């Protein structure tokens, strides 16, 4: 699905990612864990195409194409989805209208017929149930006045509607209480599919109790220092990150 | 014309002759240079006549079920108008003819503003026509009144008087429009008086033709427990200025001013508002927004004066400005004068471009750069328009406002 090779990224002249290598196959769920400031969010922003990140070396190949040459919206049309760490509030832009515009832009891109209002509303209602999002949220401004947990649920709801091939969940678990985490995780689990890959970026092993990853990576100091299965996450929880650093330095 | 009315108009003319037009040396006119008006219209600019006919029918607001007062090039058009039976609506010209003693009261000629302001003085001396509306006590107007002022250029002076009786209620749409390529000037002074418990929702839609200049003034006087909502939208014209003055004279009065300017090219739009809290327990809410593109220039000056006795005043003012082009400019200035301690007054000003985080968020959901910009611009401006309770008027203004900005293609889609 996606292959990242020797990726070096700097932000405002400062090198953040120093040679990331990562390959994620179709249907796989990978967790990327790491301490603060290790470059986790930089990686997800670069994949989604945010401005301000300079790729100085390396490549990202997505479905056989050069991802870095694509505009953010084109990435979205091709099935890349970022669930934001801090979803932005956009008062006055209706949640449902945004999604309809997004879904139909992708359909136009694929040469498919746009969904009409009726079909779209049916789709949206169905998906809202998945993350137990109250119907009233559909007609509100994007994230406007939502609580932290509601914003995160709204991200997963959007993911459900947009049906991406590659979903990046950037600290979707941060700031959630157990109930909200359970709802979000249930939503994500329902969206696991053979043709959909998921990258979960997180600080906490807790999330992985609810969404079991196929592969766990440790990102620290701008590099993937270690890769393992879900047991690695448990070990990190117990021992912290320093031993991974020491092991990598040795 | 009665001697007293004639006398007032003569006095106004003298005041105008003595003062002329304000210049940028006047603090209040620092950012708005109207000497260009004289350059465009010539020495006799105050009486430059329109030369072409104009068609009022093309400015009808779709789906608006309303009474209509149509004024074409400064003259009431009875044929095109549709007046209510239950409420007195007359043309100013007819009133000057038939009931001159009522005129000065209704359109506040008694007000001394005309002695200090050259434009109001000219308007007071020269106003040819306008709508005079009296809603009797305890009457609720069953439909809005649409006052349609159309011109084909040239100079027109309009004077409108609105009197809402005790516990009476009305919705009035004052609409200035034109579709021509001529230079011209509209001066429009509107006096609104609300008696005890009266309510008005007043729309002021400035949609003049591109080369028309527009100098407007709205004076609102409110008695006990009255309520006024003013939606002031400035979209058309070349140089445009509106002064809104609200006087909250008795306890419990409340006013809400919602303003929007949308300017492009070299348009200049200036809004000066002043709210006088002269009594206790009055509330004022003011929310003005500007969307400025091209080389346009916006000015907002919002003054709030809370008098010594006006305890428990509750006032909030907000002015937000969106600059779509690096050549667009806004001068904004909130002014608060508070003469007692027992008040709640908040104010805030922002000036900015479209938010990069919001843009990226929308694009990450599949919207093109153009679509994302449109959507955010629309959302910014529509926050003000969404407060209009009349949906037909709101749609009409939305279309007019966004037709002039680049890249707004699928407005219908956005409105859903």
UniProtKB/TrEMBL annotation, chain A:
<dbReference type="InterPro" id="IPR003593">
    <property type="entry name" value="AAA+_ATPase"/>
</dbReference>
<protein>
    <submittedName>
        <fullName>FeS assembly ATPase SufC</fullName>
    </submittedName>
</protein>
<keyword id="KW-0067">ATP-binding</keyword>
<dbReference type="InterPro" id="IPR010230">
    <property type="entry name" value="FeS-cluster_ATPase_SufC"/>
</dbReference>
<dbReference type="GO" id="GO:0005524">
    <property type="term" value="F:ATP binding"/>
</dbReference>
<dbReference type="InterPro" id="IPR027417">
    <property type="entry name" value="P-loop_NTPase"/>
</dbReference>
<dbReference type="InterPro" id="IPR003439">
    <property type="entry name" value="ABC_transporter-like_ATP-bd"/>
</dbReference>
<feature type="domain" description="ABC transporter">
    <location>
        <begin position="2"/>
        <end position="246"/>
    </location>
</feature>
<keyword id="KW-0547">Nucleotide-binding</keyword>
<dbReference type="GO" id="GO:0016887">
    <property type="term" value="F:ATP hydrolysis activity"/>
</dbReference>
<comment type="similarity">
    <text>Belongs to the ABC transporter superfamily. Ycf16 family.</text>
</comment>
<dbReference type="Pfam" id="PF00005">
    <property type="entry name" value="ABC_tran"/>
</dbReference>
From TrEMBL, chain B:
<dbReference type="InterPro" id="IPR045595">
    <property type="entry name" value="SufBD_N"/>
</dbReference>
<dbReference type="Pfam" id="PF19295">
    <property type="entry name" value="SufBD_N"/>
</dbReference>
<dbReference type="Pfam" id="PF01458">
    <property type="entry name" value="SUFBD_core"/>
</dbReference>
<dbReference type="GO" id="GO:0016226">
    <property type="term" value="P:iron-sulfur cluster assembly"/>
</dbReference>
<dbReference type="InterPro" id="IPR037284">
    <property type="entry name" value="SUF_FeS_clus_asmbl_SufBD_sf"/>
</dbReference>
<comment type="similarity">
    <text>Belongs to the iron-sulfur cluster assembly SufBD family.</text>
</comment>
<dbReference type="InterPro" id="IPR000825">
    <property type="entry name" value="SUF_FeS_clus_asmbl_SufBD_core"/>
</dbReference>
<protein>
    <submittedName>
        <fullName>FeS assembly protein SufD</fullName>
    </submittedName>
</protein>
<feature type="domain" description="SUF system FeS cluster assembly SufBD core">
    <location>
        <begin position="152"/>
        <end position="380"/>
    </location>
</feature>
<feature type="domain" description="SUF system FeS cluster assembly SufBD N-terminal">
    <location>
        <begin position="2"/>
        <end position="147"/>
    </location>
</feature>
<dbReference type="InterPro" id="IPR011542">
    <property type="entry name" value="SUF_FeS_clus_asmbl_SufD"/>
</dbReference>
<dbReference type="InterPro" id="IPR055346">
    <property type="entry name" value="Fe-S_cluster_assembly_SufBD"/>
</dbReference>
